[in-house]
Write a structure and sequence with these properties.
Rossmann fold, 36% helix
Amino acid sequence: MILRRLKLPSAGTETFFLWGPRQTGKSSLLRATYPEARWIDLLKADEFRRYMERPEILRLEMEAGTSPPFVVIDEVQKVPALLEEVHWLHENRGVRFALCGSSARKVKRGRANLLGGRAVRYELLGLTSAELGAEWDIDRMLNHGYLPRIQPDYQRVLRHPDRYADR
């Protein structure tokens, strides 16, 4: 994994949103930074359905057991109603969250609770020249960009560009 320059807070110190385009490494960065956190992955169909049907399950689960000091919710834009429960847990139980997603617009459009000043906003974009060091190439940057997903397979992308982009 390429070391990203974005420095996230220590686990349990603050609640924050981590936004950014798909395939920029948000989930990978969170997993590497917070290996002990409770993880809720809304890409998993069963978790998505469970929280979509009853967002209060998050609060009930936290109150039923020992509340972890830090919870990561990946793809939070898929169930914006969870943010009401996040807000309540943050205020009343001191639980801190990393709320990760690729579409802040979807959350805003749905008039979801953006936690009114209780959460910091971070953004993770494509790889930067500082992160890539000697591997950084201006021509490649301008022609293909630097999304982490294709970085290790760049030569394959060049051999099969039709698999990665419409003409």
